[in-house]
């Protein structure tokens, strides 16, 4: 099925550990982004990319790295996990032309940092 | 700085009633206003969207009302059903901008009692 695939669905990390959240889409969308969702805070943009090789920071980028080597994949790296990064992470994609015609979201990764 | 303010945070409605969620924005360059619906454990999904050249858009039981001069827009759910119980996010973007980012409200948790 076409869409945005996120792995893993659940993860528990110890403080200081690193990990990569995976995101892949098969819709040939140029635009991809990562959001975190926390109670009462809505969806906050971490990083985004408008195409392969192009990335930029969003609202809350500290502690996260991204890269975009292919159109399909947009991994999010936590370099040294902190309890403040406990959250639900969503990857989203859309076309750039006609931007705003609707993001497609993945089903999320629930991350707990202890 | 929160560019899209959403209210209320939570809403309880009886089955068959009307649910109303309001959003206000600050950036006059915004020209695309989608609403997303999110069920527990799932990613947000596009529900309905409007551009400011129309004052109202209706899709089934869901209607967006848009007031450009007041910089406000709202979602009305007619004949609300228990299956509509979810979190709703309004969002806004400048579709002609260079970064294609959606700015989200903080969300409204809707509960429809049977």
Structure notes:
The complex is a heterodimer of chains A (114) and B (114). By secondary structure, chain A is mainly β. Chain A is built from no helices and eleven strands. The N and C termini of chain A lie far apart (35 Å). The model of chain A has no long low-confidence stretch (mean pLDDT 92). The N and C termini of chain B lie far apart (38 Å). Chain B has one domain (4-113): Sandwich (Immunoglobulin-like), CATH 2.60.40. By secondary structure, chain B is an all-beta fold. Chain B is 0% helix and 52% strand. In chain B, the strands form two sheets. In chain B, strands 2, 4, 5, 9, 10 and 11 form a six-stranded mixed sheet that branches. In chain B, 34% of the residues are buried. The model of chain B has no long low-confidence stretch (mean pLDDT 92).
Number of strands of chain B: 11
Task: Provide the number of structural domains of chain B.
Answer: 1
Helix proportion of chain B: under 10%
- Stated plainly, the CATH topology of chain B is called Immunoglobulin-like
Determine the oligomeric state from the structure. Answer: heterodimer
Q: State the separation between the terminal residues of chain B, measured CA to CA.
A: 38 Å
Helix and strand content put the structural class of chain B at mainly beta
Radius of gyration of chain B: 14 Å
Q: Topology as H/E string of chain B?
A: EEEEEEEEEEE
Estimate the mean pLDDT confidence of chain A: 92
User: Using DSSP, what is the number of strands of chain A?
Assistant: 11
Q: Describe the sheet with the most strands of chain A.
A: 7 strands, mixed
Number of helices of chain B: 0
Percent helix of chain A? under 10%
So, the CATH homologous superfamily of chain B?
Answer: Immunoglobulins
Rg of chain A (C-alpha, Å): 13 Å
Question: What is the N-to-C succession of helices and strands of chain A?
Answer: EEEEEEEEEEE
Largest interface, C-beta closer than 8 angstroms, per-chain residues: A-B, 29 and 25 residues
Treating each run of at least 4 consecutive H or I residues as one helix, how many helices of chain A?
A: 0
């Amino acid at each position: 099925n076409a869409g945005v695939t996120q792995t893993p669905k659940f993860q528990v990390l110890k403080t200081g550990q690193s990990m990569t959240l995976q995101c892949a889409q098969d819709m040939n969308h140029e635009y991809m982004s990562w959001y975190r969702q926390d109670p009462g805070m809505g969806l906050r943009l971490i990083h985004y990319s408008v195409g392969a090789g192009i990335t930029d920071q969003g609202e809350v980028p500290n502690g996260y790295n991204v890269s975009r080597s292919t159109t399909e994949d947009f991994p999010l790296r936590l370099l040294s996990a902190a309890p403040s990064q406990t959250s639900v992470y969503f990857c989203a994609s859309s076309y750039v032309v006609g931007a705003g015609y609707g993001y497609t979201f993945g089903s999320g990764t629930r991350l707990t940092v202890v | 700085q929160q560019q899209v303010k959403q209210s209320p945070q939570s809403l309880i409605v009886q089955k068959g009633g009307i649910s109303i969620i309001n959003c206000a924005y600050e950036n006059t360059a915004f020209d695309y206003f989608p609403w997303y619906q999110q069920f527990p454990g799932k990613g947000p999904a596009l529900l309905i969207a409007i551009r400011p050249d129309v004052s109202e858009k209706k899709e089934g039981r869901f209607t967006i009302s848009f007031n450009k001069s007041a910089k406000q827009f709202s979602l009305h759910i007619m004949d609300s059903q228990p299956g509509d119980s979810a979190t709703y996010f309004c969002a806004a973007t400048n579709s002609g901008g260079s970064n294609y980012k959606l700015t989200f409200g903080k969300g409204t948790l809707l509960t429809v009692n049977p």
